[in-house]
Q: What sequence folds into this?
């Protein structure tokens, strides 16, 4: 059988709070433990030849959490960006973001710019952090940009198709994820990459994010490899195309 190519895996890292609670720890301890996992999974993805890995780190709705948790998460983000810089450079992984990062606290923003700048030349491997990301907000932003282009007579109404919309998304230069993983037993997207996941495969696991290790990641990839992606066609059509390859 031909190995199914996988270029982009997106992960909804969920369950830090419940993991902490189950251990009698504070929620922030769960987040801290969760951050430790990021490096493991990024390294594994690299080893498996997966060029893009997107991690849902902070949603546009996560600002509504208690102030102390939001502050704790932002501090963890800042520390992560600073401490991981060297490692990302060493491993030649480029850091990218999706979401409205202009709303992040100054300290985190500063580290983000530094880490992005330090890794900008490494295009083979990409770590994409979704920060203050919301798919509906992304679409609102894109629609405004397109309307502006129409008003400025740069395009006409009939030019608008998905390729025009895609150009205005945060993910304009990033391929769609073949696989989306969500940990912690929840089965929802929570405003994550609604358009880009139109034909993605989904993998749900009850494991909380702090316990999702390299092995669990490989299990998800194996599950993906066993699937048949049909994109609207029949199974027979897909099998015939595979034989032709
Ligand atoms: C995911 O874990 C991390 C973020 C959303 C920032 P949660 O904090 O959502 O953990 P649970 O879902 O409350 O267990
Ligand atoms: C989604 O998790 C956001 C991140 C993983 C960053 P949430 O825990 O915020 O999602 P809901 O609220 O349970 O849907
Ligand atoms: Mg959650």
A:
């Amino acid at each position: 059988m031909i190995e199914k190519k996988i270029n982009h895996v997106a992960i909804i890292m969920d369950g830090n709070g419940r993991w902490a609670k189950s251990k009698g720890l504070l929620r922030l301890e769960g987040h801290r433990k969760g951050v430790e996992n990021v490096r493991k999974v990024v390294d594994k993805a690299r080893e498996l030849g997966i060029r893009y890995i997107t991690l849902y780190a902070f949603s546009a709705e996560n600002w509504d959490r208690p102030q102390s948790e939001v502050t704790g998460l932002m501090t963890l983000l800042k520390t992560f960006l600073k401490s991981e810089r060297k490692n990302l450079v060493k491993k030649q992984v480029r850091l990218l973001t999706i979401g409205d990062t202009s709303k992040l606290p100054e300290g985190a923003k500063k580290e983000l710019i530094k880490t992005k700048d330090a890794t900008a030349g490494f295009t083979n491997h990409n770590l994409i952090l979704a920060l203050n990301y919301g798919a509906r907000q992304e679409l609102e932003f894109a629609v405004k940009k397109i309307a502006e282009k129409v008003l400025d007579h740069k395009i006409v109404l009939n030019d608008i198709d998905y390729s025009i919309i895609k150009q205005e998304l945060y993910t304009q230069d990033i391929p769609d994820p073949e696989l989306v993983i969500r940990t912690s037993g929840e089965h929802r997207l929570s405003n994550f990459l609604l358009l880009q996941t139109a034909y993605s495969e989904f993998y749900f696991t009850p494991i909380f994010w702090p316990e999702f290790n390299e092995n669990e990641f490989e299990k998800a990839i194996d599950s993906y490899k066993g699937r048949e992606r049909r994109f609207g066609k029949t199974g027979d059509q897909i099998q015939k195309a595979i034989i032709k390859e």
